[in-house]
């Protein structure tokens, strides 16, 4: 977002701009190691409560919400309670602490994981960069 829309805090993009940005950012993430690293650092900043990152995220949510609300209105859907992944950010750390105290968390390659008998692939509760992935937020 910083690269594509450097003034986005003051000149809000449209939802179609966000869609274009997302596609371009995904391509860069897959192809450019430095962009991937910066993107991962931004996610950690957001999850850590960084004010700039949270403001940028809120702008993206507001833009998306306007679009969703129009679709919901046209479909006659009312009364939805919105609680995205970020709703749980403040709860994740204490849950990870609890899991560690119970001896369920194992460090693996710098990440905090839970291994089970169900699958060889562990649940990654904290990524090696300190961020939380879908195993934690979902």
TrEMBL record:
Residues 2-138 form the Arginyl-tRNA synthetase catalytic core domain. It holds the Pfam family tRNA-synt_1d. Gene3D superfamilies: HUPs. One of its GO terms (molecular function) is arginine-tRNA ligase activity. GO terms for biological process: arginyl-tRNA aminoacylation. It comes from the Eukaryota. InterPro entries: Arg-tRNA-ligase, ArgRS_core, Rossmann-like_a/b/a_fold. Coiled coil: none annotated. Keywords: Aminoacyl-tRNA synthetase, ATP-binding, Ligase, Nucleotide-binding, Protein biosynthesis. PANTHER family: ARGININE--TRNA LIGASE, CYTOPLASMIC (PTHR11956:SF5), ARGINYL-TRNA SYNTHETASE (PTHR11956). Belongs to the class-I aminoacyl-tRNA synthetase family. This is Arginyl-tRNA synthetase catalytic core domain-containing protein.
